[in-house]
Amino acid sequence: MTIDATLPAAAPAPTTIPTIAEIMAAHVGGKLATGLTAPLRDDRDLSVSYTPGVAQVSRAIAADPGLAARYTWAHRLVAVVSDGTAVLGLGDIGPRAALPVMEGKSALFKTFGGLDSIPLVLDTTDVDEIVETLVRLRPSFGAVNLEDVSAPRCFELERRLIEALDCPVMHDDQHGTAIVLLAALRGAAAVTHRDLAGLRVVISGAGAAGVACARILLAAGVRDVTVLDSRGILLPGRAGATGEKAALAEVTNPRRLAGGPAEAMAGADVFVGLSCATLPEEMLALMAPDGFVFALSNPDPEVHPDVAARHAAIVATGRSDFPNQINNVLAFPGVFRGALDAGARRITEAMKLAAADAIFAVVADDLAPDRIVPSPFDPRVAPAVAAAVAAAADPRG
Questions:
Q1: Catalytically annotated residue among 105, 110, 245, 352
Q2: How far apart, in whole angstroms, are the C-alpha atoms of residue 257 and residue 288?
Q3: SS (H, E, C) the chain
Q4: How many Å separate Cα 122 from the centre of its chain?
Q5: 50 in catalytic set
Q6: 105 catalytic per annotation
Q7: What pLDDT, in 10s, does the model give residues 50-77?
Q8: For 366-393, what is each residue's pLDDT tens digit?
Q9: What pLDDT is recorded for position 15?
């Protein structure tokens, strides 16, 4: 069975902003439907696809469970899983209100990665219950994309599922964001002839995305990353820095800065906004010349791109109506496609770094200050990411 979707040949030219009535109408009945890979035209087709013919397939799988990968869709099916606690910029709106977003995610998997997926919203926020539910459902899918799960539970949930399941698991809010951010930073550094390792980076936000972005930048060789949360700069022993924040404080902020945004931004080359906190223009004036501002909060960036452009050489947002959109759809379809193509049991750091490099490589010959990442509609992106991820997968699974 497949979900019918077709990748546009090129990015559609925006015309007018859709009205609320148009948006609501487009979602009537949901955004997904199933299709058939084998015809059902007559009694013979019925006897092949269903009884009695299907019994032959079931007997074969019962004798050799490994045949399920060939004769069912489960091996290529991604479960898009959410508890509805951190949906877009809407917060904890619950599983039913989260379902339209998960349906959209499934549509993106099919359109950009050629993968079937199914949205699963769970009416529980208990990590034990979510893990148990997905362990019991494991025969029905081949990978898990965690979506819109609030921090800090998302860290424990992803870790527990990776341990419990023998298939790829990735929390896209963390790692999809991190992969595309790294690709964008590579693009910005290349177009301005800067060395990635020498950049001083400030990340505003120590939630799911902020933690993952800091860690992938460190893994890519950035030496000076400073992270801010609502209480200020993370550093070892600081009050309120526990769990993932405490661990992150140990490996970031090499100059052991203390204080708030002003202290962090002084002389910074890169600002990455991953929180709802507004960045005043006077903070941008503290940055080093020709810096990069990635204001990624949606729908309202931490600072308006026009304001950021007064102080920065490169400006990026999470929005589609400004240049340099940092969009997770550049990463996750190809990451999961590559992991499933390789038969990987885990999505490793090496696979994430390979995905970022592949995204950058697509745009490397066409870089410009307003083009540091490819368009989400560039048909080269997902295949390139999938190939790179598959090549970087651990052959031992």
A1: 105
A2: 17
A3: CECCCCCCCCCCCCCCCCCHHHHHHHCCCCCCCCECCCCCCCHHHHHHHCCCCHHHHHHHHHHCHHHHHHHCCHHHEEEEEECCCCECCCECCCHHHHHHHHHHHHHHHHHHHCCEEEEEECCCCCHHHHHHHHHHHHHHCCEEEECCCCCCHHHHHHHHHHHHCCCCEEEHHHHHHHHHHHHHHHHHHHHCCCCHHHCEEEEECCCHHHHHHHHHHHHCCCCEEEEEECCEECCCCCCCCCHHHHHHHHHCCCCCCCCCHHHHHCCCCEEEECCCCCCCHHHHCCCCCCEEEEECCCCCCCCCHHHHCCCEEEEEECCCCCCCECCHHHCHHHHHHHHHHCCCCCCCHHHHHHHHHHHHHHHHHHCECCECCCCCCCCCHHHHHHHHHHHHCCCCC
A4: 20
A5: yes
A6: yes
A7: 989 999 999 999 999 999 999 999 999 9
A8: 999 999 999 999 999 999 999 999 999 9
A9: 53
Residue in 146, 138, 210 with CA at minimum distance from that of residue 181:
210
Looking at residue 396, its pLDDT comes to 66
